């Protein structure tokens, strides 16, 4: 069996990946809170922004953490189409879960559907991303730890969607995002602990791109997207602020019709 190192760069990749997961969660939760206070087109747009922020944060967390993944005795490459597909899966399933909560008429049923959809989708993103790994050898998984990682993913989704429905203050959202970031990171490293590699030494060139050639630039690009989304959310007025602005502009002594 090949020796696996999940933090070859020290604490840099675990800390940075956790920060990305928390950032995506915080933005997604704030956007969801805005969506639940909006109607029609505005609600849809906020939910789409929430889903893209959470999905991007989770995907970026996974591949930033993978920058520290090493297997002694073999190089590692990433299949580009599968890696991009894992990002697409993260976006779609989180979108489905968020929309289930945003438009569900029955709260309990909407939460259950959203939790399962999002949790299973996050796990699917992780293992699809792992399927994109190319190395000299065979990769196998411990079924018990895989199952545990899926349960953690569902728990993370449950915490996030519950927070979106029941938490509105920025401080509470921050606390919920820290918890969700920890849950997503735990899911990743639990899933990685299930990995075993039997190395087959070879001098043949591996197909695909290195992490620095493909994953790192893409992760930086998505990190920039999260920053811009944060600026957008921070600068967009809330419904209460919009009402206050309208009231301030209304001439003294007039009344709304």
Short description:
The chain is mostly helical and 257 residues long. The protein is 72% helix and 8% strand.
Q: How would you describe this protein?
A:
- A two-stranded antiparallel sheet has the order 1-2. Strands 3-4 form a two-stranded antiparallel sheet. Strands 5-6 form a two-stranded antiparallel sheet.
- The protein has helices at 12-36, 40-66, 80-103, 107-131, 143-166, 170-193, 211-235, 239-249, and strands at 4-5, 70-71, 76-78, 133-135, 137-141, 195-199.
- The longest helix is centred in the first third of the chain and has 27 residues, at 40-66.
- Helices cover 72% and strands 8% of the residues.
- It is elongated and about 60 Å long.
- The protein has one domain (4-234).
- With 257 residues, the chain is mainly alpha-helical.
Name its key features.
257 residues; mainly alpha; two-stranded antiparallel ribbon; two-stranded antiparallel sheet; 8 helices; 72% helix
Task: Please bin the fraction of helical residues.
Answer: over 70%
Output the strand order for the largest sheet.
1-2
Report the order of strands and helices. EHHEEHHEEHHEHH
Q: Supply Rg.
A: 21 Å
Tally of structural domains: 1
Given helix and strand content, the structural type is mainly alpha
Low-confidence stretches: 241-246
Total of helices: 8
Beta-strand residue percentage:
5-15%
Average per-residue pLDDT, rounded, comes to: 81
Oligomer: single chain
Shape: elongated
Q: Main β-sheet, in a few words?
A: 2 strands, antiparallel
**How far do the termini sit from each other?**
75 Å
Tell me the number of strands: 6
């Amino acid at each position: 069996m090949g020796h696996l190192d999940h933090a070859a760069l020290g604490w840099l990749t675990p800390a940075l990946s956790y920060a990305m997961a928390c950032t995506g969660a915080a933005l997604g939760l704030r956007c969801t809170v805005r969506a639940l206070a909006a109607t029609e087109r505005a609600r849809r747009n906020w939910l789409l922004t929430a889903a893209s922020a959470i999905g991007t944060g989770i995907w970026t967390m996974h591949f930033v953490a993978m920058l520290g993944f090493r297997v002694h005795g073999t190089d590692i490459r990433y299949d580009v189409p599968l890696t991009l597909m894992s990002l697409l899966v993260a976006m779609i399933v989180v979108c489905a879960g968020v929309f289930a909560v945003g438009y569900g008429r029955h709260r309990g049923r909407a939460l259950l559907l959203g939790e399962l959809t999002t949790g299973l989708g996050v796990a699917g993103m992780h293992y699809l991303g792992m399927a994109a790994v190319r190395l000299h050898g065979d990769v196998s998984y411990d079924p018990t730890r895989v199952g545990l990682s899926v349960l953690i993913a569902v728990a993370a989704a449950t915490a996030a969607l519950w927070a979106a429905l029941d938490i509105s203050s920025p401080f509470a959202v921050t606390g919920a995002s820290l918890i969700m970031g920890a849950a997503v990171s735990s899911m990743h490293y639990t899933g990685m602990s299930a990995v075993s590699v039997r190395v087959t030494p070879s001098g043949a060139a591996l197909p695909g791109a290195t992490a620095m050639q493909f994953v790192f630039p893409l992760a930086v690009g998505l990190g920039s997207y999260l920053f811009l989304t944060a600026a957008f959310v921070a600068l967009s007025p809330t419904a209460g602020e919009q009402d206050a602005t309208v009231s301030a502009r209304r001439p003294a002594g007039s009344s709304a019709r």
